[in-house]
Amino acid sequence: MNRPFAIYPDSFDGNSLGYWRFGERGSRLTPVGAGPTFANHGAEARQDGYRTDATDYMDAAFNGMDALPKVTLEAWVRDWSNPDDVRGCVFIFYNPVTWADYITIRVCHQTPPTVAYWNLMTKVGGEMKSDIVWWGGEEILVSPDPFHVAVVLDAASTPKTFRLFVNGVKRAEGSGGAIAGLPADDYRLRLARAPGASDYTSAILDEVRLSAAARYAANFPVTRFGEGRRALARGPGTRAGLFAGVVG
After folding, report:
1. Position with higher pLDDT, 216 vs 23
2. Buried-exposed string 203-229: b where 16+ CB fall within 10 A, e elsewhere
3. Can you give 158-210 as a three-state secondary structure string?
């Protein structure tokens, strides 16, 4: 059936600022339900997302944004291929002029000894408000299975908190002090590369969502859409890539 699918809970509840399913949309960069279209800077379409490497990234402009006291940014990632000790920026939502305001996740595995770290950072007004790290999850990075990563800013809570989730498990949490959230401004959502010339991600990215809500406070189940049938389905009357899924 050629219709949008609600992969995430409450996908169309009005809090989704942007929601993209690259694989299931036939490798289109247009959103499902909300958000601008991504510009592609070198990423290659795959059956379950876009493959990015050292110089590749995608970005979308969010101009004239209201202040955001709550933000959730999440995505599915597969085939993490960064070399050891090369930190990768999975995604960053940031002010493209000053870089003074942003929320991002950087991931790295190191050797020796082999250990991974997942670093959630939020900056407001040029001042770092969160810099929390989960040390672990090397087996997640080296596994062929896709993993889900989510970062949450909740400046409307008491205390104001930042949370990092990997595969639905809260891995790290910190307090943001007096932060009021991201201020009103123009923003850009960039995938797979930090602004500047460092922190690239070599991986396949899919099912990206940006929300004006603190979607996750505790552990939650993660289920990738159609996991049991994410094989290439093509034939008469079927759009190429509509039911494309995780393939080797």
Report:
1. 216
2. bbbbbbbbbbbbbbeeeeebebbbeee
3. CCCEEEEEECCEEEEEEECCCCCCECCEEEEEEECECCCCCCECCEEEEEEEE
What is the rounded distance in angstroms from the CA atom of residue 180 to the CA atom of residue 96? 20
Q: What is the C-alpha to C-alpha distance for residues 53 and 43, in angstroms, rounded to an integer?
A: 7
Write out pLDDT tens, residues 41-67.
999 998 789 999 999 999 999 999 999
Q: Determine which of 30-34, 127-131, 231-235 has the lowest per-residue pLDDT on average.
A: 231-235
What would the two tokens of residue 193 be?
């590369």
What is the structure's pLDDT at 178?
Answer: 63
Q: pTM to 2 decimals?
A: 0.87
pLDDT tens for 70-117 read 999 999 999 999 999 999 999 999 999 999 999 999 999 988 888 999
In terms of DSSP bridges, do strands 88-94 and 102-110 run parallel, antiparallel, or are they unpaired?
A: antiparallel
State how far the Cα of 146 lies from the Cα of 127, in Å rounded to an integer. Answer: 33
Cα(183)–Cα(196) distance, integer angstroms = 22
Type of residue found at 64: G
As a whole number of angstroms, the distance between CA 65 and CA 84 comes to 37
DSSP 229: G
Residues, the chain: 248
Q: Are 22 and 32 in contact (CB under 8 A)?
A: no
Q: What pLDDT was estimated at residue 111?
A: 84
166: number of CA atoms within 13 Å, CB side?
25
The residue with tokens 């995505």 is: 75
Domains of the chain with CATH codes: 19-216 (2.60.120.200)
